[in-house]
Amino acid sequence: MAETFGAVLRRLRTEKVISQRRFAKRVPISQATLSRWEAGLKMPEERVAARLDELLDAGGELLALWSPIDLHPLDGDQRSRVEYSIRNPGKIDQRAIDAFADSLAAQRRLDDVLGPLPLLAASRAQADMVKSVLKQVEGPHRRALAGVASEHVQFAGWLFAEARHDGRAMQLLTEAESIADEAADGTLAAQAANFKGYIARQQNNPRAMVRGFLAAYHTPGAHVSQQIGDAIQAAQGYARINERDAALRLLDTADGLIDDSGRVAPPATAYWLSPTFHRLNSGLAHLALGDHSVAVDHLRTGLDNLPEDQQAAEWTIEYREGLRQADALN
């Protein structure tokens, strides 16, 4: 796996046998700031990244990994808690775990606006960092931290899936499922399985779609909003292998769950699972069934009613292409 900016910075510094304290003075910056950069918690300005590259004789290797985006908008107290937890994992508390979760929530929203590529390096670094802390934590906070770690790994897997690095995505999603099981969090395990179904759809593999989405649907603890989406997307897979009756049964199942979903909000870790989003996937399912007018209605309505910050999201491309196809066939 490619190294991140923080990992390369740390490697180059240690290869030159320079302590954090000495190197920070040469930049000059505080040692705490250098520690945050190496941990992947924050990215320096470009001119500072160039200075780091020069001081380490990196020949552009470090600067090439620089990203202009600060992915972790935590306040001072939250940053301090995260940094303390990294240094002292055995003393982690719930507020530090919440800070890890808040940082990830901000990254998820950025994905809707920016797409996966600008986020990959920092997301991967932070997932590795949270996993490293988890390995050293026992006691009452381990399960809660495992849930947050699973979500971090799952999100990194999603970004790799969006960017079509399918093999790495599948590895991360399988790891996320395992950590979610330790956390006894069915919603996280189900979402990781769902993303495997998404990868199968991008690979034009309808049988694997059915397996992935039905695995997500049947995951113990899956939220009803997740089950609706899983049933609809498994239906699309069945439709694409000409098993129309199975597809229609699953669409009926999804319709029967919709009333239940209206009583509870989707889980925060799958905030996008709104009725509008479900219409998009229903549109693809009806397109696969040859119900072109229904597909046009669902896809157009779904796309028109997405929240503003999701309107241009990279993941909407396949739905816009589906609408184009359905319109042409209608």
Structure in words:
Helix 5 (76-87) crosses helix 6 and helix 13 runs antiparallel to helix 14 (275-289). By secondary structure, the protein is an all-alpha fold. It contains 16 helices and no strands. It holds the Pfam family HTH_31.
In short:
Helices cover 70% and strands 0% of the residues. It has 330 residues and is an all-alpha fold. The protein folds into three domains: 1-68, Orthogonal Bundle (434 Repressor (Amino-terminal Domain)); 77-184, no CATH class; 186-330, Tetratricopeptide repeat domain (Serine Threonine Protein Phosphatase 5, Tetratricopeptide repeat, Alpha Horseshoe).
| Major sheet attributes | none
Count of domain modules: 3
Secondary structure tally, helices = 16
Number of strands: 0
The chain-level mean pLDDT equals 90
Poorly predicted runs are none
CATH architecture of the largest domain: Alpha Horseshoe
Per CATH, the superfamily of the largest domain is: Tetratricopeptide repeat domain
What general outline do the C-alpha atoms trace? Answer: elongated
Q: Provide the gyration radius in Å.
A: 22 Å
Based on helices, strands and strand pairing, what is the structural class? mainly alpha
Strand content: under 5%
Helix content: 55-70%
Organism: Amycolatopsis japonica
InterPro entries: Cro/C1-type_HTH, Lambda_DNA-bd_dom_sf
GO molecular function, one term: DNA binding
Protein name: Helix-turn-helix domain protein
